[in-house]
Amino acid sequence: MAEQPLRIALPKGRMSDESLEYFVSKGLCSLSKTGEGRELILKDEKSQIDFYLIRSKDVGAYVEQGAADLGIMGLDLLLEHRFDVYIPAALPFGECRLSVAFPNGQTDWYKKRDLRVATKYPRLATEYFFRRGFNIRIIELYGSIEIAPLTGLSDVIVDLVSTGATLKANNLVEEEIIMKSTARLILNPSALALRRERLGGFVRQLISA
């Protein structure tokens, strides 16, 4: 009986292409780009791998629930959602940082007694401000976080920053870095037990120098 393909969950967007390029550089697959089509499942017949292209924060759920054997996702999302997965390796791409930012000129935001924080990262934001003694109100958003303080919805934001260009374009100032993040390889623990030879070989080749 032929062995079933490996099922790898990748976040749609730049990190999926970075992941594929890295896999190719390690001799693990033959697909170097996700392409321009709308397909969400890419089959690499030569390497016997099925790639699932899904939302970044859903990668952990696919791997945790066993719908995918392994996946790639940012450390920021892993710490925010705390999926029950095995994390064998940090990978050298997907660099960004989770930062606090505020509107340019409003430097007294830290004096507010009830600080309103707009973010997609309620757990990490709450932990950060709690350690610093702030009383905060989290406003959980799912996109266009940068306009929240500009429209009066929040006092500050906590969001991912890559180059800082979006903050600058919206007249926001990066105050402090909460954490730095890169891509992580994650595995389903049960899949690792059942397919130890295939998955173990994949991981060893991926992290080899």
Describe what you observe in this structure.
This protein is an alpha/beta fold and 209 residues long. It has two domains: 115 residues, D-Maltodextrin-Binding Protein, domain 2, CATH 3.40.190; 85 residues, D-Maltodextrin-Binding Protein, domain 2 (3-Layer(aba) Sandwich). The protein contains seven helices and eleven strands. It has a six-stranded mixed beta sheet with strand order 2-3-1-4-11-5. It has a five-stranded mixed beta sheet with strand order 8-7-9-6-10. Strand 7, helix 4 and strand 8 form a beta-alpha-beta unit. The protein is elongated and about 65 Å long. The mean pLDDT is 92.
What is the gist of this entry?
This protein has 209 residues and is α/β, with parallel strands linked by helices. 28% of the residues lie in helices and 31% in strands. The protein is built from seven helices and eleven strands.
Using brief descriptors, characterize the structure shown.
11 strands, 209 residues, alpha/beta, histidine biosynthesis, five-stranded mixed beta sheet, 31% strand, elongated, ATP_PRibTrfase_CS, D-Maltodextrin-Binding Protein, domain 2, ATP_PRibTrfase_cat
Strand content: 25-35%
Q: Could you tell me the radius of gyration in angstroms?
A: 19 Å
Instruction: Assign a percent range to the helix content.
Output: 25-40%
**CATH class assignment of the largest domain:** Alpha Beta
Q: Helical region count? A: 7
Architecture blueprint of SSEs:
Elements: E1 6-11, H1 14-25, E2 41-44, E3 49-54, H2 59-64, E4 70-74, H3 75-81, E5 86-90, E6 96-103, E7 115-119, H4 122-131, E8 136-140, E9 156-161, H5 165-169, E10 172-181, E11 183-187, H6 189-194, H7 196-207
Parallel strand pairs: 1-3, 1-4, 7-8, 7-9
Antiparallel strand pairs: 2-3, 4-11, 5-11, 6-9, 6-10
